[in-house]
Amino acid sequence: MNLKPSTAIIKFMLVTVMVVLVLARCNYEHPLAVNINYEPLCGPCHGLDLKGLTLGSSLLEEQLIYGNSVDSIIQAITKGFPDKGMPAFESTLSEEEIKVLAIWIGEQRANTSYDDFRIKTPLRIPEQSIQSELYEFDIEVIATGINRWPYSIEPLPDGRFLVTEKTKGLRIISVDGQISPLIKGLPKVYDDSGFEPSGLMHGTGWMLDVVAHPDYTENGWIYISHGDRCEDCNQESRRVRNPVSMCRIIRGKIQDGQWVDQEIIWNADIETYSDSPETSTGGRMTFDDDGHLYFSVGAKKFSTYPPGNFESYIGIQDLTLPYGKIYRVNDDGSIPDDNPFHNDPTAIKSIWTYGHRSPQGLEYNL
């Protein structure tokens, strides 16, 4: 397999690699208090700052004696080292508590945490080749001047690239790196987003993923997912007095810089629209070899009630609600007869899998 720089792009755009740590319920007063077991059980030997005391070594050393991986730390906590005076905690802590504790120790070793997104870290283009298990990649700058965090980059057969900027819209980058004006005629994109304490942008009504139809050369279809936003349009919007949105899938064509022939491929009941930010929407899309379109919709509705309940996600196990699902439709939006819930009278027929949080990546494994 030869990868041609003019037609291939490395689609892990530095910022699209997102690791979501799902914190197990450990009967903590607050699920984020993951170090609650460290202080009484580990602190007396290893120190509250993890730098070690007389009875225990530092947990911040570059190389731990028994391995640096989370799995190695889990094993050490579970089985202990009785010959060195460290007890086993497998009868004291649950598997979930041990895993959470090991992850927390790993985060401290890396001087990071699950919500540290390194927003202010400068983007650096590696000068040397990157060696993967099978291939060697060279990173080449194609264009500059777009948003540093595009949501999606889609290569076209002729060597151009489609690029979505969350709060701006869709552009085309030519083979020689020229950036087009925003494509006109697309659904409105909103740029009134704020920022969370972590530095992440927080808003609704964004442009999300873009993919070309597998037969794009013949039919010209382009698929877009976006946050379809409205105000005073459902019970939720009137309750919170904010705009609400929901992932919607559309397709259309681009002619002379204009979006034309738009069709709605999938949309949810407007009563399911919420003011939860697009960071939880997902909206990733991919095609399989038979022309089915798969797309993700995240857990875009959560409640912080009753007080003390941290983000109780709603509906991800409910087949009548759109949240937390992967969907599968034909390229025109119709429902395949062999979808798993096609014959369920109460389910959303396009559901392929359910129980997800916020799927931020989706690819078909060839």
Could you give a short description of this structure?
The chain has six helices and 17 strands. With 366 residues, the protein is of the alpha+beta class. It has two domains: 38-109, Cytochrome c-like domain (Cytochrome Bc1 Complex, Chain D, domain 2); 144-354, Neuraminidase (6 Propeller).
Question: Notable features of this structure?
Answer:
four-stranded antiparallel β-sheet, disordered N terminus, Neuraminidase, 366 residues, 17 strands, Cytochrome Bc1 Complex, Chain D, domain 2, alpha+beta, single chain, 6 helices
Task: Describe this entry's structure for a reader.
It is a single chain. The chain has 366 residues and is of the alpha+beta class. The chain has two domains: 72 residues, Orthogonal Bundle (Cytochrome Bc1 Complex, Chain D, domain 2); 211 residues, TolB, C-terminal domain (Neuraminidase, 6 Propeller), CATH 2.120.10. 12% of the residues lie in helices and 22% in strands. The protein contains six helices and 17 strands. The strands form six sheets. A four-stranded antiparallel beta sheet has the order 8-9-10-11, with no helix packed on it. A hairpin with a 3-residue loop joins strand 4 and strand 5. Helix 3 packs across helix 4. 26% of the residues are buried.
Q: What percentage of amino acids are in beta strands?
A: 15-25%
CATH architecture of the largest domain: 6 Propeller
The CATH superfamily of the largest domain is TolB, C-terminal domain
Q: Shape, please? A: globular
Could you tell me the CATH topology label of the largest domain: Neuraminidase
Domain module count: 2
Overall mean pLDDT stands at 85
